[in-house]
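ok trying this again, last paste got cut off
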Amino acid sequence: MSGETSSKPGRKNSNRVVVAVCVAFFTGMVGMAYAAVPLYKMFCQATGYGGTTQRAEKQYAGRVLDRDITIRFDANTNGIPWQFEPVARSVTIKIGETTQAHYSATNKFDRPITGRASFNVQPEMAGAYFNKVECFCFTDTTLKPGETLDMPVVFYVDPDIVNVPELKDLKTITLSYTMFPVEKKQPVASSAPAAGTNNKVSNSEASLGG
């Protein structure tokens, strides 16, 4: 009996250790899941993986090749009541040439809507060599009811793309945007003045009136 009694505290301690390890493992997995999203985004932006384009630090490639490449433009919407489309469906440029293209967006809804554009290029490997100097996709856009906005994008294709065996004979790149709604949070503070403020104004008005 004494042996069984003495084994119970040890068993409880062992159970506590197992529970603690499980909790720590679960917490770590949740943390890794949240961290994975920004890390994956950073990886895509750095490598062009998944067709993610690059944000250029300089406005020009430094050299322009005597070789043409066609850029096709695609536009889609996801849950936003906008008419969103490229002004021109394609443009043919020199590799390394800085070029400006335009998209157009019109809010078809009866209230202001804020949109945000996600983007990629096809083929995906070309994303690492597609450099955006300026783009409407860098910030959110708010349109009033019925408002139409011209949305430019300035870009160039890095001449180093011709050094990649899989891309050296590439003739066409497709730049695709998908516009989706962004819900703006309401301010925490109320726009109505506080009760004390009303009382002070009333008292002041009363004293002036007296």
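PB: full thing came through this time. Residues 30-51, 190-210 have pLDDT under 50 and may be disordered.
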